Amino acid sequence: MLKSNALEIIKSLTKPEIAEFSDFLFSPFFNKKTTVIKLFTETMKYAPDFTDNSLEKETLWSKIYPNKEFNYGVMKNLIHDLTKLAEEYITQKEYELRELQQFENLFASLSKRNLRNVYLKKELSLKKNFKDDNADFTNRTFDEFYGSLTKIYEIKLWDSSFNDQQKYLNEDIYCLTDSFVTGILVHLINVYYLTEVSSYNDRGKEIADNPAGIILKSISEETFQNIIREVSNRSEFKSRVIKGYFLAHKANANLNESKHFFEFKNYFLNNYQNMPYNYMKDMDTYLLNVLSSLRDPSVDKKSEFYSYHNFRHANNLVPERNNQLNSMQFIPWMFLFLDENKPDELEEYIKSYKDYIVDDDRAATHIFAEAMSLFLKSEFSKSLSLVNKIKFKSAMPKNILKKFSLMIFYELKDFEGFNFAYDSYKHFLSYGDWAKKDWLEHYIEKTKIFAGVIDTLFKLWESEDRTRILAYENELVNLNIDNKKWFLRKINELKD
By mean pLDDT, which of 20-34, 73-87, 152-166, 368-382 is the weakest? Predict the structure, then answer.
């Protein structure tokens, strides 16, 4: 029982949900097995930690069946039954959040039973509750919402055509087609983006025959514009949705030309008012991905990221939809404040978002954040002391941490410590399966350049040769390197 899925689900429930789940189990509609209730009752005696050895199968059996010999098969089935009921409960909880899906199922049921009077009364409620300006997208993405709405209008049209062929149906026809087109285009763009990003992370290249991409390439910009214009005749809201996703896709598909990125960014920032959170979050995800992947060297990406942060912060776009972050969503943004030399803004960022981190590197990331804060306050020895305590489990934050430690050694002017850390770093870059992935070759090469620049800074600091310093400054300005602004500040310090 200690390692069962049932226990994992139960541990995730809040106190009110525990009470609801208990009612759920006692309901004969969902559960007629009293032994399952006994198993749940015995299990709950060890809440909230659920770590006691009494949760072993044999011990629980003795509580449920005090006068029977332990039967592994029966106990296994009992735990299976509790697991299925726990899964059914959390599924039901999710279903309760999806009012439109409930409408879809209700309309289908009423139509099958030919309950026309009830059906027509619920139709009024549908039109009132799911208009563009009244729709609740809190728990639904656009493609889910409009997918369900499309199905409802399919049911309505079929029912009306079958039962009342004289009914004027233009309104329902437009509701069906506009909802379908909005949902299918949004879904198509999102699927293409997801498969593209996933394939890149897996193999470092796009799927050449991605069916979603083939369809999108077949839709000309003129066609998209015609769709947006036609939909806007009836729904400004839907047309704004389609245009936002279209511009996001166009920017994502044209990474060599920054004009598409800026067209998308400007449209989003000028037209986000009164749009639901899920739209905002999707646009935010696309904007960050496009900016990260832009291949136009004229764009100052770090400045773009930094200027965009305030908008993200003001509109609650930093955490993911479930109010969670992983370490690699949190850590890179700290370096923006380092680049801009903004210790107060870094403190605000850390205070606002560190508690959202949920992955296995949470504790290490918290220490890293403290070390970064000390670094910006020029407390380099204290920062290094904390860095030495950080134990990341994932390779990418380990790499970032090693780069950061080189920066600390430079600030301390500890050349011996730098050399030791640099040698360790080079070994790290050439070791492990993560370093063998094709898509990381460019990243690793860029990291080696980063370390090499700090090595050069040490040599310039020792030489105090102003001519060499000025020459290297000109070289550094044109170098594609992380934390360039920090490096340029260090060059300025050498010139003084």
Answer: 152-166
Instruction: Give me the helices (H) in 5-49, please.
Output: 5-12, 15-26, 34-44
With cut-offs at 50, 70 and 90, classify the pLDDT of residue 133: low
| Tokens standing for residue 353 | 């978002």
DSSP reduced 3-state for 133? coil
pTM score, whole prediction:
0.78
**pLDDT for res 247:** 97
State the number of CA atoms in the 13 A half-sphere of 429 facing the CB.
22
E strand residue ranges, 264-402? none
- Helix or strand run (H / E) with residue 254: none
User: How far apart, in whole angstroms, are the C-alpha atoms of residue 315 and residue 428?
Assistant: 39
Where do the structural domains in the chain lie, given as residue ranges?
5-97, 101-299, 394-496
C-beta atoms surrounding 105 within 10 Å = 15
Distance CA 341, CA 286 (A): 27
C-alpha span between 44 and 55 (Å, rounded): 10
pLDDT digits (tens, 9 = 90+) for 351-381: 999 999 999 999 999 999 999 999 999 999 9
